[in-house]
Amino acid sequence: MILKNLWAHRRQNGWIFAEIALITILSFYFIDHFTVTTYDRYFCRPAGEFEQEHLVVGQVGQVSGPDSASFATLYALRDQIRALPEVQYVHLAVGFIGDYNMDYMSTYSSEADSSRRCGAREGWFLRNEQYFETQGLTAIEGSPSAEELSNCPEGGAVITRSVARALFGTDQVTGRRIVEWDFSDRALQDGGPHIRNRYTIAGVVEDFRFTPYDRHAYSILTPRSALVNLTPKVLIRLKPEADTEAFVSHLQAENHPSPSGRSGGGQALLRAGNHILVRIMTYTDYIDRKDSTGDPGVIRTLLGILLAVFLLNVVLGTLGTYWLQIRKRTEDIGIMRSFGAKRRDIFFMIWQEAALLTLLACILGQIIWLQFAINIELSDGLSQTYASTAAKDWVNTFWLHYLIICVVQYLLLLTVVSLGILVPAWRACRKHPVEALHHE
User: Is the Cβ–Cβ distance between 245 and 56 less than 8 Å?
Assistant: First the structure.
């Protein structure tokens, strides 16, 4: 019956079919990216994430004055922060988790078996400076403690549980060796990937992700012996009983120096030589700001805006198209009403026709998009450079990924089409049969 009705109005339905198929092709990329980033950000949280409520981030700056800025005054400023009664640990950060500027993606394998590879992000920390205690990373059972890992020697590395299991099949890997591979174009031109670095595993910590959009907790931390600049960030962990918001508000009120190094009420509270603590905020506020202004956040925002504008045009276009089509069917609706058909049955029949037409148009558009995906090698899944022996989720399993996005897209377009037919169909169904039969 539904197919018969669609065929009976094939001229009007043909235009709608072509419109929805074109919308499917044009919107697939936006819906794909939006779905994946939403999943990564809100639903793909690995176990073992560190406690963030009592973390504070500050920026060290320099002000003019008679004193000089040196590493000695920088460490003196750190000691002032550490002496505050609410503070438990302080780390002068080469970088920290969530700071997009501190890590890069590379390929690793066990030294004994190079076939077991894992793509992981590598970050750095300043050794002998309480990094793991401050960041809140927890060593797994059987691994050296967080205090010991903070003193990791040069040439050592601390890996997450996921990396250990991907490369060795177990998380008890302290003392084993891993290698970092160079898959650059130059290395491949020279005959294949080369070994860039070798590390001895100093310990294993619970899983964490460097950025909110990493699908897996494949992370490696390596030590550095010294700072490379005089204005690093400072990562502060407060005591469990401390009020983080109150601590930040207090320091913000005291640390807004003028170019001469003075705050509104005199000398700033935390200053050593020409070093001063500025722009302090909670860790969660810092990550949110970094997320909104960093490349992933900006790209996601732009795609969200484009998708919203696109969907608004789709809704308005679909509304106009179905409005005209249903106006032409008002007389048919009047005939069905005069034979006793209920309003909800007529409305449901129209909705079923729209749902089936949307499904057929989506299938056509998605098949066309699939040809583009295959031709540009999207179906290869993860790059061989970052190939992992770990289990893959739906995002990097092409066919499952493709089918899920197809379903999400169909449901989204069906919602849009349903909104498009809601008003005109309901108004047509509510007309008196006599009025509907005289409709022109």
Answer: no
Structure tokens at 82: 């550490």
CA–CA–CA angle 152, 135, 87 (5° rounding): 110
> What pLDDT, on a 0 to 100 scale, did the predictor assign at position 419?
78
Contact in structure between 234 and 78 (CB atoms under 8 Å): yes
Q: Which residues of 60-81 are buried (b: 16+ CB within 10 A; e: fewer)?
A: bbbbeeeeebeeebbeebbebb
pLDDT in tens, 401-438: 899 999 999 998 888 888 777 777 777 776 666 565 55
Distance CA 344, CA 430 (A): 10
Q: How far is CA 258 from CA 232, 255, 269, 277, 363, in A?
A: 20, 10, 13, 13, 63
Helix (H) or strand (E) holding 415: helix 398-430
Residue 106 in contact with residue 178, Cβ under 8 Å? Answer: no
Question: By the 8 A CB rule, do 111 and 210 touch?
Answer: no
Inter-CA distances, 205 with 30, 54, 146, Å: 36, 20, 8
- Strand 156-160 and strand 194-205: the pairing is parallel
In angstroms, rounded to a whole number, what is the distance separating the alpha carbons of residues 118 and 385? 9
Nearest to 110 by CA among 43, 194, 180: 180
Please tell me what DSSP assigns to residue 270: S
The ranges assigned to domains in the chain are 2-45+294-437, 55-292
Its pTM stands at: 0.72
Interatomic CA distance for residues 440 and 432, integer angstroms:
14
Say which residue the tokens 């939006």 belong to: 34
Q: Which of 311, 318, 309, 317 is nearest to 417 (CA)?
A: 318
Centre a 10 Å sphere on the Cβ of residue 271 and count the other Cβ atoms it contains: 22
Q: Compute the C-alpha angle 363/365/367, nearest 5°.
A: 65
Q: Contact at 8 Å (CB) between 388 and 166?
A: yes
Q: Which residues in the chain show pLDDT less than 50?
A: 258-267, 379-386, 440
Query: Please, are residues 16 and 409 in contact by the beta-carbon 8 Å criterion?
Result: no
CA distance 198 to 320: 64
Backbone angles phi, psi at 267, to 5 degrees: -65, 145
Q: How far is it, in rounded angstroms, from Cα 209 to Cα 46?
A: 8
Q: How far apart are the C-alpha atoms of 108 and 119, rounded to whole Å? A: 6
| Cβ proximity of 140 and 204 under 8 Å | yes
